[in-house]
Amino acid sequence: MLSPTPSSTVIVPNFLNLPHGICTANPTNIQHLLQSNFSNYVKGSRFHDVLHELLGDGIFNVDGNLWTVQRKIASHDFNTKSLRNFISDTVESGISNRLLPYLSAASLAEKPTDLQDVLQRFTFSNVLKVAFGIEVDLNEKEVDNLQFVRAFDLAVEIASSRFTSPLPLTWQLKRFLRIGCEARFADAIKVIDIYAMEIIKSREKEQENEWLGRENRDLLSRFLSLNDIVSFDDGNHKRKFLRDIIICFILAGKDSTSTALTWFFWLISAHPRVAELIYTELMSVATAAAEEEKEKEKEVFVLRYDELKNLHYLHAALSESMRLFPPLPINSRLAVEDDVLPDGTHVKRGVFRPFDQFQYPVFHGGPRICLGKEMAYVQMKSVAASILHEYEIVALDGGGTAEKMMNPPYMLSLTLKMKGGFPVKLKRRRH
User: Transmembrane segments in this chain: where (predicted)?
Assistant: First the structure.
């Protein structure tokens, strides 16, 4: 749609062929939107209305002072060494205790494995640990946890369909009448709310009893001590605030990383030379680490935080994969006042605007740039390194060949998931 236009900007019509918004991938325009004229382009009522039941007044769903306060709180915590270490430890533990044992069993069974599903469950387990501080193995049948996971997935799916509805009145009427998918959405939100509130209340009791056995490492524990920064009307107001901000971070970490890894492995499986160069780099870094620490050979291969920094080729390959298949492919804003973009495009107040970001669209840009960028790379590099060290990934559809890149199997929702899953066979390497 954008490639034939000289400025990479087009006016998007609605189903009546009337101007509905502007779509741009022009880096100069995007910098203007996300940074230079940041205050004029907001999430706005459309975004808030669609996602309000799920995200409430959380950081990804609000503007103005509500966003500023939450951004300040989250920025402080994401810049602490203790949270970085906690996330790194969580990922390392998850790979060692859940991911690699599961893949090993799948490899021995010599049956196709849906790698997209495996990665989704793995990253969801990790984000629940980081957000709530709870251990969850989604390969086990823990009823409460699985109900929450299924409710969350369903809520995200239905919220995504609201965005693509040609007539917002359609889903709004279904919501009012509580019928069809909107009835299922309401039920899913109820499950999410109960699950989140029970954890929050449980953690409050621990604090009241001065329970010293838990370190304030997860996000919920950190945000519980907000009274000095944010004033609340009462306990229910504070719990709602905590619920919204935590659910936002779960949404941010749940599918974005697994989606990025899915497309990465799909591309790698069709480019054995790149896979071999990554494997060579892995072996070089692993050998250097073993010699430096004089440690015995590990039962499972998981690199530490400092070792991951030396995986430059893997970092570049992941970045290129995300350029081709950005996990969050569309960003949107409403114009507060009329404006003119740097390429001369006139923007009317209230116009809905989907767009990419700057030269590299993956981690947003400007004041709303992704706080979890570094931690996302930690998780992606850890997972990719551990899997590629042990296995060759054989995609049953042949992977991301030049021919398949002409029509890749994606489905558009809040994230760019692979349609129909990603069935693979895992071929164990001989070391």
Answer: none
